[in-house]
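can u do me a favor
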């Protein structure tokens, strides 16, 4: 039969509360009583499980993480880092995945289910925040899509990412540069576009075009097809994410438009496929390990010190230059498009 905390209490002749305090390393326990509990644990070969630790600390030892999708290797890498970092602190991770934020699973927010919650890239954090604050559950938002200085968050400097991507294309000699935006409500989309425009303005250039897209391969493919059908191509494209970039490259390659000889393409996120794609994709890498680890450290501090002041941590992304960008051709890549009769 498995030895329980109650067996230790009986063996030591002390209360369950005292045993719990010993398990929790409480300083209020008399040294004589601490030795009795430790001796009883040794004689019974008792190893405290998560339930015992929970009883001892008044915590569940579980952190909840809520996100919209795992069909994104950048988000998956953040989740992996969060899980590894929590394990280092003897916490377990509970995932809740919902594509529809207005119908999220509220059971995670019930009393005593989790010690804290991490929200990963929510498009509308407000629907969570009201519930979390009402129940006094510590939380942190990773990749916050709203400007809210009163909410503990870890964010990426998307403006710098958009600027660096565009600056790279300008330094290669491109002047006809297009941008495909990400989904409209997202702050990250707006900031990447703002960086794109700032780099062009600094160089005295106008955008070839700015297209509204969504973070999907299909979106990039369809917009690139429209450019080809119009008979006018940019010499370079900054896509708001790698999936859009994959769609652009696929559409161009199908029509014999060569990457990067005819058109250079830059993505954003550095999805795991980016270096495997042909040609490998120049992109802006999100510091996923730093985001995940910083988020865990912030949350655990909030759990230990609930009154702690909210912190906003920001990390810079990194431009990763690969094979999909190069110097522009002297002639116009549109000259290679098939003539429509």
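np, heres the sequence
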């Amino acid at each position: 039969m498995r030895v329980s905390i109650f067996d230790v209490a009986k063996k030591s002749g002390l209360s369950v509360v005292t045993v719990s305090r010993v398990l929790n390393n409480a300083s209020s326990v008399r040294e004589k009583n601490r030795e009795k509990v430790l001796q009883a644990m040794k004689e019974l070969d008792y190893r405290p499980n998560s339930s015992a630790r929970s009883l001892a600390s008044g915590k569940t030892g579980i952190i909840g993480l809520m996100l919209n999708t795992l069909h994104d290797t950048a988000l998956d890498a953040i989740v992996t880092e969060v899980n590894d970092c929590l394990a280092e602190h003897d916490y377990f991770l509970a995932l809740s995945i919902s594509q529809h934020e207005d119908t999220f699973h509220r059971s995670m927010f019930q009393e005593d289910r989790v010690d804290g919650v991490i929200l990963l890239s929510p498009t509308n954090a407000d629907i969570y925040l009201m519930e979390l604050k009402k129940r006094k559950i510590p939380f942190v938002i990773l990749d916050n899509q709203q400007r809210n200085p009163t909410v503990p968050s870890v964010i990426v400097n998307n403006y710098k990412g958009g600027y660096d991507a565009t600056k790279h294309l300008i330094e290669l000699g491109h002047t006809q540069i297009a941008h495909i935006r990400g989904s409209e409500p997202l702050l990250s989309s707006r900031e990447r576009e703002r960086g794109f425009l700032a780099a062009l303005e600094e160089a005295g250039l106008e955008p070839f075009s700015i297209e509204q897209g969504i973070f999907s391969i299909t979106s990039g493919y369809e917009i690139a097809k429209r450019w080809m059908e119009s008979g006018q191509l940019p010499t370079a494209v900054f896509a708001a994410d790698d999936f859009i970039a994959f769609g652009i490259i696929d559409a161009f390659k199908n029509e014999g438009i060569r990457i990067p000889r005819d058109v250079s393409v830059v993505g954003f996120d550095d999805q795991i496929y980016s270096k495997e794609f042909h040609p490998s994709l120049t992109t802006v890498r999100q510091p996923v390990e730093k985001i995940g680890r910083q988020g865990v450290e912030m949350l655990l501090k909030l759990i230990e010190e609930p009154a702690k002041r909210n912190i906003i941590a920001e990390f810079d992304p990194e431009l990763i230059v690969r094979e999909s960008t190069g110097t522009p051709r002297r002639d116009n890549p549109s000259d290679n498009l098939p003539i429509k009769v």
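The two ends are 84 Å apart (CA to CA). hope that helps!!
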